[in-house]
TrEMBL record:
Protein name, as recorded: DNA repair and recombination protein RadA
Any single Gene Ontology cellular-component annotation: cytosol
SMART domains in the record: AAA
Family: Belongs to the RecA family.
Keywords from the UniProt entry: ATP-binding, DNA recombination, DNA-binding, Nucleotide-binding
Keyword Cytoplasm: no
Signal sequence, renumbered to the chain: none
A biological process from GO: DNA recombination
Molecular function via GO: ATP binding; ATP-dependent DNA damage sensor activity; single-stranded DNA binding
InterPro entries, sorted: AAA+_ATPase, DNA_recomb/repair_RecA, P-loop_NTPase, RecA-like_C, RecA-like_N, RecA_ATP-bd, RecA_C_sf, RecA_monomer-monomer_interface
Protein species of origin: Candidatus Methanofastidiosum methylothiophilum
UniProt keyword Cytoplasm, yes or no: no
Gene that encodes the chain: radA_2
Lineage of producing organism: Archaea, Methanobacteriati, Methanobacteriota, Stenosarchaea group, Candidatus Methanofastidiosia
């Protein structure tokens, strides 16, 4: 049989397998709500059409970061599906951080609390298939309970690798659709101590399939407390980009998390810009290039809150400095 030749190979592929097998030239993103973290990812946040994993110890701020990403998505006109596998999400807090009521007719912010791991992954899959949501979030892998465990209720029996096998299947089924439908998938995960290990450390539930499938892995940990007088009002959250398929891995910094309010975006970018030398200090005076911003941090924050043009220039300069690229031209 003679081999078939093609005048246009790409058109032949599209006609047989569909347009969605051809990747888009540029990856779109959703902001994390932390300007410094957005800059460190190199694409302005978490990638769309990809899986992002956020993990860390208890109290590290994983859920708040996930909700912060949800807020950015909603504010950009996108719909969000939040699968609360832990069944302990503070709904009022979630609505406050996201800035939208849940489960309304407009379906901007949907919260689901499934019973089993299978239900959670099925709901997540339906959200991906629906093309209705630009962001789907699972919180968290460590809380997933397979149906077999719940049905048998045998605490002496150890079922091995049930969750990893579910995620292996989930990745195989939905990996292409996540990309084709351009859905950002955020998987929140916990950590487990490595019992018996000579070097200690931790592992994450979900198995290697989830680690391989994730384009962006962000590890969070609690850093120093933030105080107003003697009162602790928040803490710095340290992030480490453990894996980044769209940029450099192992970039690390902190962002300020204020209890009950979420990430302080303005303070985050000012601290980050100061660390990079984009904002300079002359005594207590904060300066950006030849522009005086304020005497002290608080005055600087107030000035920038009313000067969006200067703030935008600072963000662009930070991006160019971190990534050593002139992707943004600063206007005169």
């Amino acid at each position: 049989m003679a081999k078939k030749s093609f005048d246009n190979f790409l058109e032949e592929i599209k006609s047989k397998f569909g347009d969605d097998v051809i990747p888009e030239p540029a990856i779109k993103s959703i902001s994390t709500g932390s300007p410094s973290l957005d800059i460190c990812t190199e694409i302005g946040g978490i990638p769309m059409g990809r899986i992002t994993t956020i993990y860390g110890a208890p109290g590290a701020g994983k859920t708040t970061l996930a909700l912060s990403i949800a807020r950015e998505a909603v504010q950009s006109g996108n719909n969000v599906l939040y699968v609360d596998a832990e069944n302990k999400l503070d709904i009022e807090y979630a609505e406050y951080i996201v800035g939208a009521k849940h489960n309304q007719k407009d379906e901007k912010f949907i919260i689901v609390q499934p019973n089993t791991a299978e239900d959670a992954l099925n709901v997540l899959g339906l959200g991906i298939e629906s093309k209705k949501f630009s962001l789907v979030i699972l919180d968290s892998v460590g809380a997933l309970a397979p149906k077999k465990e719940k049905d048998e209720v045998d605490f002496e029996k150890r079922d091995v690798a049930l969750i990893p096998s579910l995620f292996t299947k989930f990745v195989r089924i939905y990996f292409h659709q996540i990309n084709a439908n351009n859905v950002a998938v955020v998987i929140v995960n916990q950590v487990r101590a490595k019992i018996g290990s000579y070097v200690g450390g931790y592992s994450t539930p979900g198995g290697y399939a989830l680690e391989h499938a994730s384009s962006l892995n962000i590890m969070l940990s609690k850093a120093e407390d933030l105080k107003e007088g003697d009162a602790i009002v928040g803490n710095l959250v340290k992030y480490v980009i453990k894996k980044n398929s769209n940029g450099k891995s192992f970039r690390t910094n902190t962002y300020p998390l204020i209890y009950g309010k979420g990430i302080d975006k303005l303070k985050d970018i000012v601290n980050f810009a100061k660390e990079l030398g984009v904002i300079t200090l002359s005594g207590p005076l904060y300066k950006f290039e030849d522009e005086k911003l304020g005497l002290g941090l608080q005055a600087t924050l107030e000035y920038l809150s009313n000067s969006s043009e200067t703030l935008d220039k600072i963000k662009k300069m930070c991006y160019n400095t971190v990534n050593k690229l002139n992707l943004f031209e600063l206007e005169e």
